[in-house]
Each structure stands twice: as structure tokens, then as C-alpha cells.
Amino acid sequence: MFAGAEVFRLLQEGATPKDIDRATKKFGFPVGSATLFDEVGIDVAAHIARDMQTVFGARLGDSSMPQLFQDLVKNNLCGRKTGQGLYIYQAGVKGGDREINPKFTEIIKNYSKEAKEKTTMENIQWRTGLRFLNEAARCLEEQIITSPTDGDIGAVFGLGFPPMKGGPFRFIDTYGVSNIVDLMNKHRNTYDERFAPTQLLVDMAKDNKKFYS
């Protein structure tokens, strides 16, 4: 949901659902992250966002997000199940041919945020990706998962993380822990503390360690 929160922040900054889907599918996710909200159900996301905002506060994202989800639900924009969400669902219309829902566009405008950087494909990929990677590392740090292998298997088979990238921990090793921490700190300086790297990653970068030997 942390990466999902970043998706909605990007939408608040003017990215379109198709921008999000193109970028996340290009990264390797089987389903675009905007479409995924419609598939799971925005009503479901509304319940999750409300509870997670209470527990995590600013770490999750902007405090207006639960209300944004509630407004979408009140307008029956629950996703595929109601025929409309971020997209409009019509019989015979598939994938990239779907129309962005103008009702969604109007509602999101009420929650608009200023973009601090140009919203490019790379910007979308890193902002959503870094949130995913950071929370994966936090799960290991807090012993929610017992090993990087468990985290990678769970992310690939349970969350759709691109299998060709090996999972979040394998990806961090490949890209370099220090490089990931540097990117997180860059985004932290540009945006806010939601991009602050977890202590595990900071320590590993300092000691030049990897998750896998």
C-alpha cells in the first residue's frame, strides 16, 4: 500500500492513470498500478488507507488520501466491479483502449498537489519503486519476514514484483545498496520523510553489504 499511496500522490500531481500504467508495466509489473486499484476495488483500498493512515501517518503519505478514497467510493467509483473507477469499463473494451474516467479526473482535481519534479516515466518508476523497496527492507528489519529469500519469493509470487528482477532484495543487490540509499535520500530531500531509507539499508550501505553473498 505504500507504493500504492505514491501512485495516488502522482495522480494528485497531474499524472494520468495511463501514465502510471505505462511506467509500472514498463518496469515489469504484470498489471499497471493504476489498473490494479480498479481490479482490487477502490472501496477495499479506502478501508486499508483509513486504517494505515491511522497507524503510519505521514510515513504512508498525505493525510488527505483516505478522504480522497471515500469521495471516490461515494461517487460509486469502486473499480471494475461497478463499471467505473480510474477507468470506465465497457463490454468488449480491453486494456489500453479503456477510457480514463472523467469523473475520476474531476474528483482528483479537488485534491491536487504541486509537482516538485517533472512527472516522467523514470520519475514514476523510482517513486513507486523506492517505496516498495524501502518497505520490503523494513519488513526484514522488523522480522516480519525471516530472510531476503522469503521476501523475494513473496513479492514475486504474491505481489507481482517483476520476476526478471528477482524480487526487491535481489534488485537492491543488483543496483547497489548505496545507490538505492542515495536515491532515497535524494527523493527525501525533494519530497519528504516518506522516502527516508530504513536503518537496515543505511547500515548496509555504510558497511558495503549485500542481502545475498
From TrEMBL:
Residues 5-89, 127-209 form the 3-hydroxyacyl-CoA dehydrogenase C-terminal domain. GO terms for cellular component: mitochondrial fatty acid beta-oxidation multienzyme complex. One of its GO terms (molecular function) is long-chain (3S)-3-hydroxyacyl-CoA dehydrogenase (NAD+) activity. One of its GO terms (biological process) is fatty acid beta-oxidation. Gene3D superfamilies: 1.10.1040.50. PANTHER family: TRIFUNCTIONAL ENZYME SUBUNIT ALPHA, TRIFUNCTIONAL ENZYME SUBUNIT ALPHA, MITOCHONDRIAL. This is 3-hydroxyacyl-CoA dehydrogenase C-terminal domain-containing protein.
